[in-house]
Specification:
The structure is a single chain. With about 350 residues, the chain is of the alpha/beta class. It has 2 domains: about 1-195, 3-Layer(aba) Sandwich (Rossmann fold); about 215-330, Rossmann fold (3-Layer(aba) Sandwich), CATH 3.40.50.40. It is about 30% helix and about 20% strand. It is built from 8 helices and 14 strands. A hairpin with a 2-residue loop joins strand 9 (about 185) and strand 10. The longest helix is centred in the middle third of the chain and has 15 residues, at about 125-140. The chain is elongated and about 65 Å long. The model has no long low-confidence stretch (mean pLDDT about 95).
Length: about 350
Amino acid sequence: MSNILLVFTGGTIGSTAVNGTINTSSKQAYKLINLFEQCYADAKNQNFTTIQPVAILSENLFPSVWETLINAIEAENISQYDGIIVTHGTDTLAFTAAALSLYFNAIKIPLLLVSSDYPLEHPQANGLSHFICAIEFIKQRKEAGVYVPYKNQNSETLIHLGSRIASCLQLSGDFISVQSKAYLSFKDNVFHQQNNINKLDCKQTQLAPRFSSRILLIKPYPGLNYEHFSLDQVDVALHDLYHSGTACSSDAWGENHTLVKFIQTCKQKNITLFMAPAIKNQDSYDSTQVLIEQGARMIWNMSLEVAYVKLLLAYGNFNTNDEITQFLSNNIASEIIH
């Protein structure tokens, strides 16, 4: 008998389509269990304790929802469970996976986030297969940590580390891990190793579920005008980078279009500017070196989603620059790519 804490949060997997509109439904959450019981031979040996701390479409997620979710999970006696399954929408799945991975970095049981690309009634919906994979992971692997099982269309189910799954690919419902390196695959009820990940170098860190609300995230694009950003009520800016770890450092199109000038503006307002994602190696582009020399701080070797959430936790939990710097550099949930 497996004892599983099942946490419903809404999302497409907890929604129904009515007259062309998809929205969350209180009844739909338990439809997942009903479908599972109909098609899973060993269903009677799965004991679910269900809670529903929130019911939202994941595009409406706010960091305070993570606090609510974490508090609800911790209100349960986690030690009595073999695993935890959290249902979630796909839009912000990677961000919540990052948040739970970092916060529950010392968890001793598996926690899996399960989502669906379509409402469960849809013939192409993958939500039930993800749920079954999560159940099997808890039964077979019993591996502590945060994971996301996901089956792209016309592909086998992959198990992603929660700290390494990237946001959904554009104009599709498909997910990949950073560098396209999933942790496991799941086929014919058997898990297969895809990539070895050393979890032994992770530094367990106790955190409070406090996420700063004063972090600004900026994405680069040709023509970006930094004068459009108000820095009121901002303590930290995180600047996304192109795939090569770069952003515009040229003033050829005017100072308001170069990150160099924006770094200086941030300095004047006592705002720290971080950049991510980028892989640290011996060679880097001149533009990147210029930005670092101007005072931007690079968060190396982790996804944008994790870098953003880690900053929220850093500035929500720590007060000194040394503490924040140490926390950002520590590998606590296998989020740092070696």
